[in-house]
Amino acid sequence: MNLKQYLIPQTLKRFHSQYNNDIELVAFSGSTRLDMGGLTQSGEIIEKIWKKALDDLLPQDFSPHSILLLGFGAGSAAHLVSRRWPKARITGVELDPVVIDIARKHFKISSIPHLTLHNQDALDFVNQQDSQLQFDLTLVDCYLGDQFPLQLESLKFIKKLTQISPFVIINRLFWGKYQPLTLDFHHRLKPHFATSTTRTTSNYLISIQKQRGVGD
């Protein structure tokens, strides 16, 4: 990596897929990141967002045996949870095969122990699971560029998530035009689920748990 790449972001390679037309591998400040739809999708920024969520929204003594990552991307969340809970079994679900290929070639996901990766739509994957607890923790980061799929906002989908996982955390964008969309989504959840939140400068993270006797 040359000096210019430390000072100014440099696009190393561009990719296209049927799901994302603006995929870039970018070198900057001594590291490589994945950008999609003009947004950073991997690296230190993403890890900091998820670290805050795990620190703020989970019990202090929480130690999951199985973790589901919906919207695997380049694997930043997987690297983070693997370092925190090295014995945990990690299941990643990623819609875009091009992104999976990039993650394997450029982001060292093969070094993550106990990882199983599925090239599948998150909605289809979740709907195929039996309605019983299978994952101790689920992290949802299913953006296509800057768009959160509407079908993943449905109460039916969220209910199924809480049936297969007692702790669900959803990452949402939270600046400019995204703020009212994210707040509306959270507002629609409140009558049906127990929720708590934390946020960073740009993101709003919602922890969702099934309320006892509600939504069954």
UniProtKB/TrEMBL annotation:
InterPro entries: Methyltransf_25, SAM-dependent_MTases_sf
Ranges where the Methyltransferase domain occurs: 67-139
Keyword Lipoprotein: no
Keyword annotations: Polyamine biosynthesis
SUPFAM superfamilies found in the cross-reference section: S-adenosyl-L-methionine-dependent methyltransferases (SSF53335)
Domain of life: Bacteria
Any GO BP annotation: polyamine biosynthetic process
Pfam family of the protein (one): Methyltransf_25
PANTHER family: THERMOSPERMINE SYNTHASE ACAULIS5
Descriptive protein name: Methyltransferase domain-containing protein
Native species: Candidatus Chazhemtobacterium aquaticus
